[in-house]
């Protein structure tokens, strides 16, 4: 990893305070076989150590809306076997979602957005060097102040670009590479759009560490082509995309 300090106090890039360190990675850092669920913390990667150390540090410093403890969790009966958690503080204390008029709502500079994050909420900036293919845009990794799970972070394409919450190919590629940097079997990335639970109309994805495997991840898929499948076992049908290799 390399540290690069610049004059940017907030995620918006205004001059002043130091920016977060850069987490520089290459293809050699990708973990193609994560640890097993029988011992998920056996060999954390460099990425896991940096993310969880920074996240725990911010938790100890009181930068979250609440302290995340053990959450009551159970698997619901039924064929889908949904994992249900009770997180009362998130329900009561998270920022209310912004009103949604359209899935194409433009960015609103007057509403809360990630250019307003404090420097202390930023953990590091992900930047790839070398192959394979062109590197994705760098992603800022920031704490999610209303966490769902341990290590719950936001993955932010350059916030100063003020992109609305509509998924782009470079942001998705960067998030998938972040997933490959973790050696933990439960690290997941996700995206929820406008009308799908997103509380801020400013482009972001989520990363977090699940505490258990999800049955959906081992459900059979119907092949639709060499890199495409259809998953019917979940709450709603879904497409599965397979990357070569």
From TrEMBL:
Gene Ontology CC: cytoplasm
One Gene Ontology biological process: glucose metabolic process
Chain ranges of the GDPGP1-like N-terminal domain: 46-207
Biased composition (Low complexity): 1-12
GO molecular function list: GDP-D-glucose phosphorylase activity; guanyl-nucleotide exchange factor activity; hydrolase activity; nucleotide binding
Compositional bias per record (Basic and acidic residues), positions renumbered to this chain: 90-106
Region (Disordered): 1-23, 87-106
Domain of life per record: Eukaryota
InterPro entries per UniProt: GDPGP, GDPGP1_N, HIT-like_sf
Stored Pfam families: GDPGP1_N
Protein name as it appears in the record: GDPP1 phosphorylase
């Amino acid at each position: 990893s390399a540290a690069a300090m610049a004059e940017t106090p907030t995620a918006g890039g205004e001059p002043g305070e130091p920016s977060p360190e850069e987490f520089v990675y290459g293809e050699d850092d990708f973990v193609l076989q994560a640890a097993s669920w029988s011992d998920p913390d056996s060999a954390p990667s460099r990425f896991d150590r940096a993310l969880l150390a920074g996240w725990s540090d911010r938790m100890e410093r009181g930068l979250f809306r609440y302290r995340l403890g053990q959450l009551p969790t159970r698997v619901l009966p039924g064929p889908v076997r949904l994992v249900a958690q009770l997180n009362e503080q998130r329900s009561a204390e998270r920022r209310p979602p912004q009103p949604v008029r359209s899935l194409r709502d433009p960015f609103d500079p007057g509403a809360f957005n990630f250019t307003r994050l404090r420097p202390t909420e930023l953990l590091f900036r992900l930047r790839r060097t070398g192959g394979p293919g062109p590197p994705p845009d760098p992603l800022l990794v920031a704490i999610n102040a209303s966490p769902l799970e341990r290590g719950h972070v936001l993955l932010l394409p350059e916030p100063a670009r003020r992109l609305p919450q509509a998924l782009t190919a470079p942001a998705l590629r960067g998030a998938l590479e972040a997933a490959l940097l973790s050696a933990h079997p439960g690290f997941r990335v996700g995206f929820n759009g406008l009308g799908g639970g997103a509380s801020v109309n400013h482009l972001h994805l989520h990363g977090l560490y699940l505490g258990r495997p999800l049955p959906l991840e081992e459900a059979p898929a119907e092949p639709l082509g060499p890199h495409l499948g259809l998953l019917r076992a979940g709450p709603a049908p879904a497409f599965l995309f397979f990357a070569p290799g």
